[in-house]
Amino acid sequence: MSTHTTTGTGPGTGPDTVTVHIGWPGGRITAHLAPTATTRALLDALPFTSDAQTWGEEVYFRTPVSPALEPDARQVVEPGTVAFWTDGDALALPYGPTPISRGDECRLASPCNVLGLIDGDPRLLATVRPGDPITVSRA
Fold first, then answer.
1. Over 32-93, what HEC string results?
2. What sign results for the dihedral spanned by CA atoms 102, 106, 108, 109?
3. Domain-by-domain residue ranges, the chain?
4. Closest Cα partner for 97 from 123, 70, 133?
């Protein structure tokens, strides 16, 4: 099992990161977000609650923001990545393969803005059930 922390390099690991909590009836995770335009829009909308959806080993849910696709958007990401799916105005939290993955990769439905990383084991997201209320708040 892989774990993610804020040590190292990459999205959500710099000195200007912002920490958020994402909670649902079965658990809570902490995520560290890089200072991107999408992150700033998301922070301005906090706190908010949405209904969880699942797609393979990914949890996603609508947000109250509609940012543009950023130049470094990616479709294949690491487990535990916090991504923003601009096509659905949703946060996407993959923890394993999706229906369109090749092998064990985390392949999102389309390119997404990469915001940061979940702190700890992203497989905790497997406890999210479709329809669960998910709340995102600043830590």
1. EECCCHHHHHHHHHCCEEEECEECCCEEEEECCCCCCCCCCCEEEECCCEEEEECCCCEEEE
2. positive
3. 18-138
4. 123
How many Å apart are CA 122 and CA 124, to the nearest integer? 5
Q: 18-138, what's its fold?
A: Cyclophilin (2.40.100)
pLDDT truncated to tens, each residue of the chain (139 aa)? 333 333 334 455 567 899 999 999 999 999 999 999 999 999 999 999 999 999 999 999 999 999 999 999 999 999 999 999 999 999 999 999 999 999 999 999 999 999 999 999 999 999 999 999 999 999 9
Tell me the whole-structure pTM to 2 decimals: 0.89
Query: From CA 124, how far away is CA 6, in angstroms rounded?
Result: 18
Q: Which of 40, 2, 3, 18 is nearest to 116 (CA)?
A: 18
Contact 80, 118 (CB under 8 A): yes
